[in-house]
User: Fold these one by one.
Assistant:
Number 1:
Amino acid sequence: MNSLYSAECVTAVKETARRNLVIAVFGTEVCLTMSALQVLADGYFVCAVEDTSGGMSAGPHRAGLRRIAQAGACR
């Protein structure tokens, strides 16, 4: 649900020493939204790849994208 629950993922992100992340996942409304909100809270800049992420339907997909945009992510 949130890739940052994985210690390996967090370590890999930190080892890059970069502050800009591009995120694309299968489930926009949960996986993308939760991961993006977490890294935004941790001080990263996030760009979500809208056309390579998907949701169960168009409504939740759009809602997830709006939520992360409201939090400061680009898309």
Note: The chain has one domain: 3-71.
Number 2:
Amino acid sequence: MIVEPYSPEDREGVLRLYLQFNEDRIAFGAGDARYKYIEGETPWANTLNDRNCKNFVAKEKGIVLGFITTRILEYNPFEKIKGLGEIDLIVVERSLRRRGIGTILFKRAAKHIESQNASHILLNVSTKNLPAIKFWTKMGFQAISKSCFEHHGGEREEIVYMMGKSEV
């Protein structure tokens, strides 16, 4: 398995995994992310070409097994933190979870974030996504706050914000 920066040839595999991510959200009760596909596109797909985002893919034999999306935040509300990165999304092929792919993707993303002079990483997870919360806790992240918002269809979702260090 290799982990490398996203390239346009990875687009189909990444979008396939994104659909799995949305199916999983619905299955564990967090609801539809409300990103509707029009010919394979979503508002999130724009991050694949956003110059402020850095995306990495885990591949084997040319097949995308997982991906992670990062960015360096322009606004840092934490005075004592020199720089703040964000993990926007991480998805691993459903049948390959708990085999270390997520950990490898996270370590590659953290290395990139640290190289951009950010000492900490912020992320958010649905409070209903217990496997993800467990994963991020294992990676050294701690919950720092919770928030609740309402989707367009009236569904409410509670998320937990977690923070960890970029050095791994």
Note: Strands lie at 2-5, 53-60, 63-72, 84-92, 120-126, 142-150, 156-165.
